[in-house]
Write a structure and sequence with these properties.
Elements lengths: L1 H23 L1 H33 L12 H15 L10 H20 L11 H7 L8 H22 L2 H44 L9 H15 L3 E10 L2 H8 L1 H18 L5 E6 L2 E7 L6 H23 L5 E11 L3 H18 L4 E5 L16 E2 L1
Parallel strand pairs: 4-5
Antiparallel strand pairs: 1-3, 1-4, 2-3, 5-6
Helix pairs in contact: 2-3, 2-4, 4-6, 5-7, 6-7, 9-10, 10-11
Length: 389
């Protein structure tokens, strides 16, 4: 009894993990299923066309029934769907899973009619094979696939006993049940491998997005996500970009060693992640330079920025002191956009320039400058942002 209880507990835990997985990776799964669906919509008509062309050459007395021609309008619908969505990479919200089940029904139902109503009492040819193949096409929830297969099985067995002699109907039922059992096991095995593959690819994807030393975003991922946010927010983007550099970091490496320098970078990364919201982007730009993109819903106020940068400077200095015993400061440049159409490259350049002005003004200083759109910029030389500290 204890072994059975432990087994049931493991099955319950695995089911819960799969549910969480489908919820967490719904977007990626929908994209994969949508790509497979488009491919299936172009290959299925080709397969049926080849069957209709080759079968008369092999079986000279074979004649198609009206149920065979039921595939003609369905294939036309598939080709239209492929033509409309050929260049579309992302599916509509919540549409992919129903479309995948609809596609399976469009293929399974005519095959059931051919194997029963249009078979003239002959053994089934298509449905047992489809019962094995169809569930392997898409990455869908196993319980939904099982319900679809069971419903198709019941309809197939009912029509078989209505249209065939009991012996042949029993043979079809037995063959379809074997196919259903095999399909269920194969589906569970495939989903298990797919889950492991997704988890492994997700792990490596996360590793490629995170700086191994500091734990913040890599430069490439930070730029990619920042660009995506700005494109989605333009022309009314409200954000703040911070550019930070540790003062005297080279001397720290030279005196205490690179291992201590690595610990300082780790402490800075942890402090930055704890100082900003989850929706904000924190990245390592290179060496001892860090960047932060604060995503805002309304125009930032300079008083708020000054208070935020003062608190951030204090926290970073305390983190460095606790890590290496040295009182090192961080120079911070801030560029903010208030309801503007922003170019990421220009925003970074402004924050970088502001940071160097702060560094030249004296250690542990910050500088704030506003972002101006190209139409607002004057032809004369831009003045350096006013220092604050």
């Amino acid at each position: 009894m204890e072994k059975i209880a432990a087994l049931m507990e493991r099955l319950k835990l695995e089911r819960k993990r799969r549910q969480q997985f489908f919820q967490t990776h719904k977007g990626e799964i929908d994209e994969e299923n949508f790509a497979v669906l488009k491919g299936a919509c172009i290959t299925t008509p080709v397969i049926f066309l080849l069957i209709y062309l080759i079968t008369p050459l092999v079986l000279h007395r074979w004649e198609p029934t009206p149920y065979h021609f039921a595939f003609v309008p369905l294939c036309f619908v598939m080709l239209v769907f492929y033509g409309v969505n050929r260049k579309q990479a992302r599916p509509g919200h919540g549409y992919t899973e129903p479309l995948c089940f609809l596609f399976q029904l469009m293929v399974i139902l005519p095959c059931i009619m051919i194997d029963t109503l249009g078979s003239d009492g002959r053994p089934a040819q298509f449905f047992p094979l489809l019962a094995v193949v169809m569930p392997t096409l898409f990455f869908l929830r196993g319980i939904y696939q099982l319900i679809l297969l069971m419903a198709a099985e019941c309809l197939f067995v009912f029509l078989a006993f209505e249209t065939k002699k009991p012996y042949f109907a029993a043979m079809d039922m037995l063959l379809s049940i074997f196919a259903l059992v095999f399909s269920t096991g194969l589906l569970n095995l495939l989903n298990t491998f797919r889950l492991r593959l997704y988890r492994l690819s997700g792990y490596y994807k996360q590793q490629s997005q995170r700086d191994a030393l500091s734990g913040v975003c890599t430069k490439s991922f930070f730029l990619e996500e920042s660009q995506r946010y700005i494109e989605a927010s333009n022309p009314d983007t409200c954000c703040v970009l911070l550019f930070m550099d540790v003062d005297h970091f080279k001397q720290l490496n030279d005196t205490l060693g690179h291992e201590m320098g690595d610990r300082v970078l780790t402490a800075i990364g942890e402090t930055l992640l704890a100082s900003f919201r989850k929706e904000d982007l924190v990245g390592r730009y290179g060496g001892d330079e860090f960047v932060v993109l604060m995503k805002l819903r309304q125009s930032p106020r300079e008083a708020f920025l000054k208070r935020k940068l003062e608190e951030l400077g204090d926290r970073l200095q305390q983190a460095i002191l606790a890590c290496c015993g040295k009182k090192l400061s961080v120079s911070i440049g801030a560029a903010y956009a208030a309801m503007a159409e922003v170019e990421l490259e220009e925003l970074i350049r402004l924050a970088d320039s502001a940071m160097y002005v702060a560094k030249r003004s004296g250690k542990r200083f910050y500088n704030i400058c506003p972002y101006r759109q190209r139409s607002e910029k004057r032809p004369e030389k831009r003045k350096e942002p006013e220092k604050n500290g």
